[in-house]
C-alpha cells in the first residue's frame, strides 16, 4: 500500500489560547496517560447526541422486514447494551439523520 | 546552541544520528560539544564509554538527564558551542523540555507506515512548541532508506507525507548501511571509520542542511543524493 495514504487529510485547528512553557512540558504526562493531549490541534468531531428521553410525540407500532440474521444481531445488541430493540433502531435513525453513519448507507448488506 | 535529535518513534536512528552529528561538530567544526543522553536505554552513554576507551578518538563528554530538564539545558548551553541531545523514542517530559529550548530539532523517521503514523502527533507538538520556542528550526529527516531502486518511491512518498503536514523535511537522507552499526560498536562515528565513505557524506549533508535552513540559506548537497522512483 502506498505511503501517500498517510498524507494529511484534515486541516489543523489553531490553538485556542497561548500555551505556557510549563503547560507545554506537562502535557507530555497527559499524553502518556492516554488522555486527550493539549497539543492535539485537530478539530475534534462533535460528540454524538445521546438519545436519553422518549420522543415527545406519540409512538406507534411499525412493521419492517428484516433478515433472520439482522433480527438476531439486534437482539444481541439489545442484550449487550440493555437498550430495547425499538430504541436501538430509533438511535440508529437519529444518527443517520445527523449524518454520522452516512457510510453505512453505501453498504451492500441485504 | 542546542541540537535535539528526538521523536516519538523508537528505532528510527536517533542515537546514531545524534552521535555522528556530535562527532562531526567536534572534529570537523572544532566545536566544544556535550552530549545529553535522555534515553533510559543509555545507548549514547554506552557509546561514549566505548569511545573514551580509545585514546585516539577526540573526547566528547556526555551527561544523562531525565524529566524536566529545561533549566539544566539552558545552563549547559552557556558552556558549550553545541549541546547535542539524544531523546528516546517517546513523547515525554525530557523531549518536551528539550523542544522548548532547542535551536535545531531533527526528527528521524524511516520510510515505513509505522514511523509515518507518528507525524500527525509530532506536528501537533511542533505547532504548540512554536508558541514557546518561536525561533526553533525543526525538520524531519528520512533515515535507513532502502537502497534498491525499485523501493525509491517509498522515500519520495515518505517525504510527501511529511510535507503534507507542513513540517519541513530535509532533502538529505541516510540509507540503510552496515557502516553505521559497525562504527557505533567501536565507539566511533562513520566519519572516523570511513571519512570519505557514503555514510559520512550522508551525515555531513544532514547537519549542514539543517544548520543552513536556520540561516535561511539554500543548501548545496556535498554529495548528490538524487532519488528517482522506479516503476
Largest β-sheet summary of chain A: none
Order of helices and strands of chain A: HHHH
Structural class of chain B: alpha/beta
Which percent range describes the beta-strand content of chain A?
A: under 5%
- Span from first to last CA of chain A? 30 Å
Task: Note the main attributes of this structure.
heterodimer, A: 110 residues, mainly alpha, 4 helices, elongated, B: 231 residues, alpha/beta, six-stranded parallel β-sheet, 10 helices, 6 strands
Structure description:
Chain A is mainly α and 110 residues long. Chain A has four helices and no strands. The model of chain B has no long low-confidence stretch (mean pLDDT 93). Chain B has ten helices and six strands, in the order βαβαβαβαβααβαααα. The termini of chain B are far apart. Chain B has 231 residues and is an alpha/beta fold. The longest helix of chain B is centred in the C-terminal third of the chain and has 18 residues. The radius of gyration of chain B is 16 Å and the shape is globular. At the A-B interface, helix 1 of A face helix 4, helix 6 and helix 7 of B.
Amino acid at each position: 500500500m502506498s505511503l501517500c495514504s498517510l498524507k494529511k487529510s484534515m486541516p489543523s485547528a489553531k490553538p485556542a489560547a497561548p500555551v505556557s512553557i510549563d503547560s507545554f512540558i506537562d502535557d507530555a504526562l497527559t499524553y502518556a496517560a492516554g488522555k486527550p493531549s493539549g497539543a492535539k490541534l485537530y478539530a475534534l468531531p462533535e460528540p454524538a447526541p445521546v438519545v436519553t428521553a422518549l420522543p415527545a410525540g406519540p409512538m406507534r407500532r411499525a412493521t419492517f422486514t428484516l433478515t433472520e440474521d439482522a433480527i438476531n444481531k439486534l437482539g444481541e445488541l439489545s442484550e449487550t447494551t440493555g437498550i430495547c430493540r425499538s430504541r436501538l433502531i430509533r438511535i440508529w435513525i437519529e444518527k443517520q439523520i445527523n449524518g454520522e453513519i452516512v457510510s453505512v448507507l453505501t453498504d451492500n448488506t441485504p | 546552541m542546542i541540537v535535539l535529535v528526538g521523536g516519538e518513534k523508537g528505532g528510527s536512528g536517533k542515537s546514531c544520528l545524534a552521535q555522528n552529528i556530535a562527532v562531526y561538530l567536534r572534529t570537523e567544526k572544532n566545536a566544544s560539544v556535550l552530549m545529553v543522553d535522555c534515553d533510559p536505554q543509555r545507548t549514547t552513554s554506552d557509546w561514549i564509554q566505548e569511545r573514551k576507551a580509545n585514546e585516539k578518538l577526540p573526547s566528547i563528554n556526555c551527561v544523562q538527564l531525565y524529566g524536566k530538564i529545561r533549566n539544566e539545558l539552558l545552563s549547559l548551553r552557556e558552556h558549550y558551542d553545541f549541546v547535542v541531545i539524544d531523546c528516546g523514542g517517546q513523547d515525554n517530559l525530557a523531549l518536551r523540555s528539550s523542544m522548548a529550548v532547542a535551536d535545531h530539532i531533527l526528527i528521524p523517521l524511516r520510510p515505513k507506515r509505522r514511523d509515518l503514523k507518528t507525524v500527525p502527533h509530532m506536528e501537533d507538538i511542533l505547532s504548540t512548541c512554536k508558541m514557546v520556542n518561536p525561533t526553533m528550526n525543526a525538520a524531519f529527516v528520512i533515515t535507513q532508506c532502502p537502497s534498491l531502486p525499485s523501493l525509491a518511491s517509498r522515500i519520495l512518498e515518505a517525504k510527501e507525507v511529511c510535507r503534507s503536514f507542513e513540517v519541513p523535511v530535509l532533502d538529505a537522507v541516510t540509507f540503510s548501511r552496515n557502516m553505521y552499526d559497525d562504527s557505533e560498536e567501536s565507539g566511533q562515528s562513520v566519519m572516523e571509520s570511513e571519512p570519505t565513505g557514503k555514510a559520512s557524506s550522508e551525515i555531513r549533508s544532514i547537519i549542514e542542511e539543517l544548520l543552513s535552513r536556520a540561516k535561511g540559506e539554500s543548501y548545496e548537497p556535498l554529495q548528490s543524493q538524487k532519488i528517482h522512483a522506479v516503476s
